[in-house]
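# nightly structure sweep
# worker-07 picked up a monomer target from the shared queue
# config: single-sequence mode, recycle default, output format = structure tokens
# input follows
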Amino acid sequence: MIILSKLADYAVIIATHLAGDAERQMTAAALAQEAKLPRATVAKVLKALAHAGLVAGARGAAGGYRLAREPGAISVAELVAAIDGAIGVTQCTSHVPDCSRTDFCPTRPHWHRINQAVGTALGAVTLADMLPPFARLALQPPAASQETLTP
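# output follows
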């Protein structure tokens, strides 16, 4: 079973809350309350996401965090990488020097293909995709009004 770290999971949750209204700026405390996560954890995740350029922070009385890009332009893969680093389903694909079998392991090349597949799958899902259906509708631009003229 492939399991992301709790912090990577929390990063997706936090970013999804921000994606619900991409123009909204929220404090770590407000995000923690809304997402029902510990404030210290939210602050830690936001710091990593800001360092990766995925969220932007503003200081001061009206400060807070918001997404640095549109929800449709931020992938789950980027969020996971900001917290966990390069995606690796086995130790040898992400920490090569730690494995004593690297030079003769017959499965190593195949794990790289699997990593790429997992990375591609996570890269294909955006924050906009992660929003509940009703929130996704709010992100879509309004359809052009189509008035029907009757002769």
